[in-house]
Amino acid sequence: MNKYEAEFARHREELTHKNAQIERLEEIVRLLKHHRFGRKSEAVKSNDQQLPLGIFNEAETETVKVTEEPPSVTVKSYRRRGTPKRIKLPADLPREDVIVDLAEEEKHCTEGHELKLIGEDVSEQLDVVPAQIKVIRTIRKKYACPTCGDCVKRAPLPKTAIPKSMAGPGLLAYIATSKYGDGLPLYRQEHMWQRAGIDIPRATMAAWMIKVGDLLTPLINLMEEELLESGYVQADETRVQVLKESGKLAESLSYMWVRSRAWPGVKPITIFEYDPTRSGDVAKRLFVEYQGYLQADGYEGYSAICSKAGIIRCGCMAHCRRKFFEAAKASAKGIGLANEAIEMIRKLYEIEKTIKDKKIDERHRIRLAGSKPLLDELRKWLDDNLGKVPPQSQLGKALHYAHNEWPYLIRYIDDGRLSIDNNTVENAIRPFVVGRKNWLFSDSVAGASSSAAIYSLMVSAKQNGHNEYAYFRYVLEKLPHAEKVEDFEALLPH
Fold it and tell me: Which residues have C-beta within 8 Å of that of residue 428, sequence separation ≥ 6?
């Protein structure tokens, strides 16, 4: 009898193991189907409202659906279309008046009296004039002595961003903004210039951008110095492919490491830095002299440097929520424990919406009063369910991630400057991700490093409310003349 009981127990254990394996595989299939055919949004509905939490590990292109269809208004027995709101054209755009008047013979009434002008009806249309291209001729006067013939003088050539180049600051700023701000690859820009009757090979534009990146080095150094003195930095990294890199295959991946600062009352700074690897040694180098809060996802490279004195690690609640969202998508029923976690985290984000523009001390006070009880509730829920779910399931992974990251996930309630998530730096990465989908790779290490410098200034300028083209043009006009530290500081985007 014992023999049969042992055999039965063995078969039951095997069956349990296989059932668990089948469930994991079914979860994977459901998750893949959802990624392929389901909604990409991770918005959460509650009380007929949606709260977008933006929790992608790498910022991806947002698609905002804009419809010109006006809202419907129900009036008794039929439906009337509401009046659509017209787009208000900016007042600072130049205006060109086109006068439409009556013919002289029409300026009389039916009784023959002359009509008197009583006013005007004005309507506006937006027009586009293709980019104006011009050649700046620098004419330097030369003088000579008519008597001795030996003395010849002429005015010195003005300093330019790229000496002895035909590219002026406006052209360089336009190319940089088009590529790094708008994600327009150089080969497409080459075709655009050809359409305008100008031959600017993409290789030439690439060489210009490398020189522009080198020129920006003093500004990037000042920005990095200020960033590391701020006491609160968010960090993330995103992949990039570099074709010509010593010791690496063309198809292998390298990384852009990104650091940002942004909290209420401080001017944003974002720094991109290229490195061939995602090694923890890179994180150590980037924060070698830093002290303060460091907010990042669960990547171990950041955890290692936070073990040293002076660096306090903060977690990312958006990453935590994403784990539960993935578990909900993989669930056979579509509802369950994962949704309970999502709902609790949603309430935390509701509080964040209300304190977004409040002062730091008030943010801290409100979080202690409102967010801490919710976090205590979430922690109890985690403890109650951690041992009830297979650890290899999607929900099990989400539970263990939240459990392991817990001290860092709740850190944000300790200081009003801190954010609940790492979305500031991830949003800063978005222009790079959009551009990467178009230009796909960097040709050389020099190109990747220069791209990092240009992205740093481009993204920081946008974060501080500047027109990227106008700012870049101004910088490229003034930077060749900068000599003292104060000259460079005056050109910073913040």
Answer: 59, 258, 260, 270, 459, 463
User: What average pLDDT does range 10-17 have in this prediction?
Assistant: 70
Which pLDDT does position 13 carry in this prediction? 72
CA 178 to chain centre: 16
To which H or E segment does residue 375 belong? Answer: helix 372-385
Q: Answer whether residue 75 shows pLDDT above 60.
A: no
DSSP 428-483: HHHHHHHHHHHH--EEEHHHHHHHHHHHHHHHHHHHTT--HHHHHHHHHHHGGG--
- Please, are residues 138 and 157 in contact by the beta-carbon 8 Å criterion? yes
The answer to whether residue 2 scores a pLDDT higher than 50 is: yes
- Phi then psi for residue 121, to 5 deg, are -105, 125
User: Residue 232: is it exposed, middle or buried by C-beta count within 10 angstroms (0-12/13-18/19+)?
Assistant: buried
Work out the pLDDT band at 88, boundaries 50, 70, 90: confident
Residue 68 has φ and ψ, to the nearest 5°, of: -90, 0
Mean pLDDT of the chain: 84
| Phi, psi of 373, rounded to the nearest 5 degrees | -60, -35
pTM to 2 decimal places? 0.77
- Residues with Cβ within 8 Å of 446's Cβ and at least 6 positions away in sequence, in order, are 210
What does the pLDDT read at residue 79? 60
Residue 36, SS3 per DSSP: helix
Distance in angstroms (rounded) separating the CA atoms of residues 354 and 351: 5
Q: In a 3-state reduction of DSSP, which class is residue 179?
A: helix
Q: Can you give the pLDDT at residue 437?
A: 79
Site of tokens 């002289």: 104
What H or E segment, with its residue span, contains residue 271?
A: strand 269-275
pLDDT tier for residue 130 given thresholds of 50, 70 and 90: confident
With the CA atoms of 142, 143, 144 and 147 taken in that order, what torsion angle do they form, in degrees rounded to the nearest 10? 150
Residue 52 burial (10 A CB sphere; 0-12, 13-18, 19+): exposed
Collapse the DSSP code of 361 into the 3-class scheme (helix H, G, I; strand E, B; otherwise coil) and give the result: helix
Buried residues in 294-329 as b, exposed as e (16+ CB within 10 A): bbbbbeebbbebbeeeebbbbbbbbbbbbbbbbbbb
CA–CA–CA angle 225, 228, 232 (5° rounding): 150
> Cβ atoms within 10 A of the Cβ of 475, count?
23
Give the residue extent of every domain in the chain: 230-429
* Cα gap 289→291, rounded to integer Å: 7
- Please say if the pLDDT value at position 427 is more than 80: yes
